[in-house]
Amino acid sequence: MKEGKVIRTTGSHYSVRTNDNQLFECRIKGNFRIKNIKSTNPIAVGDIVDFIPPTQTIEGLITNIHNRKNTLVRRSTNLSKRSQIIASNIDQAFLIATIAFPRTSSGFIDRFLVTTEAHQIPTIIVFNKIDIYNQEAQDFANEFKAIYENVGYRCIEVSAKRGDNIEMLREIMKDKTTLLSGHSGVGKSALINAIDNSLNLKTGIISSTHMKGKHTTTFAEMFPLSFGGDIIDTPGIKEFGMFDFQKEEVGLYYPEMKARLKNCQYYNCTHEHEPKCAIKNAVETGEISIERYTNYLNIMHGEELKIEKWEDK
């Protein structure tokens, strides 16, 4: 029996890396699929597993999953009552965003941040493609960044093309497991190549008609970094469906709301129609962003993110 980390999943097959950097191709025991697992994938990239090594005639067999430190989960796009585990045992996440070509909406960002807050995964918002900014774009980017910096999120502006602030990302990532996520077309693969050019990942192009990215990654995969640590590249996500959230809990995952909840008149305040609500008061005085508050209401009511309303602007 050996122990290793799952670095790649493709359906029912898994690549497992041991501590001495041996790589084994494995499958799973059938009972993994019947253990009251709500996710479409019982094993995810980042899982620590026990497995029986393969022989010359059969694949290895994963027999056990170790307890997970955390997971990043979203609702399965095809099965609304099931979840998809994007990855597990993550030290930190980078949400890659762009203000144009394609534009990343605050609704998408907030859904991602609520999920990482719920699973206690520290997240940095990385704004890529600053090399294409003109003054108008820079002014918009500054305002957009301020929304998140004002509530405590670190935002870093980078250019995979020019190399701006790439060394800063390397220092943050060193000796940690970092997940990268974002829409297709925001330049995740190009950014990974800039961070560690030994990986040489395939990069995509942007559709000139709709300014949308074309998928180059079809499944999550973990890569070792030459300077220490691992990076998890994930498929470009068009929408981030929330899974297993009670609407009364959503405010707990907004840092600017959580700090004010005790000042609401009602302990179960939804911050929508109740009197003497500290959150609504903070929105009215500008202490809480109206954009973040609107996204909060949409998440609480289970409204889907209407991509078409913003991505072609």
Give an overview in words.
- The structure is a single chain.
- By secondary structure, this protein is an alpha/beta fold.
- Helices cover 21% and strands 22% of the residues.
- The protein folds into 3 domains: 2-67, Nucleic acid-binding proteins (OB fold (Dihydrolipoamide Acetyltransferase, E2P)); 72-233, Rossmann fold, CATH 3.40.50.300; 247-309, Probable gtpase engc, domain 3 (Ribonucleotide Reductase Protein R1, domain 1), CATH 1.10.40.
- It contains 7 helices and 13 strands.
- The strands form 3 sheets. A 6-stranded mixed sheet has the order 10-9-8-11-13-12, sandwiched between helices. It has a 5-stranded mixed barrel with strand order 1-2-3-5-4. Strands 6-7 form a two-stranded antiparallel sheet.
- Helix 1 crosses helix 7.
- It is globular.
Structural class: alpha/beta
Number of domains: 3
CATH architecture of the largest domain: 3-Layer(aba) Sandwich
User: What is the N-to-C succession of helices and strands?
Assistant: EEEEEEEEHEHEHEHEEHHH
Number of helices: 7
* Total DSSP E strands: 13
**How is the CATH topology of the largest domain named?**
Rossmann fold
Query: What is the 3D form?
Result: globular
Summarize this, please?
With 313 residues, this protein is of the alpha/beta class. The chain contains seven helices and 13 strands.
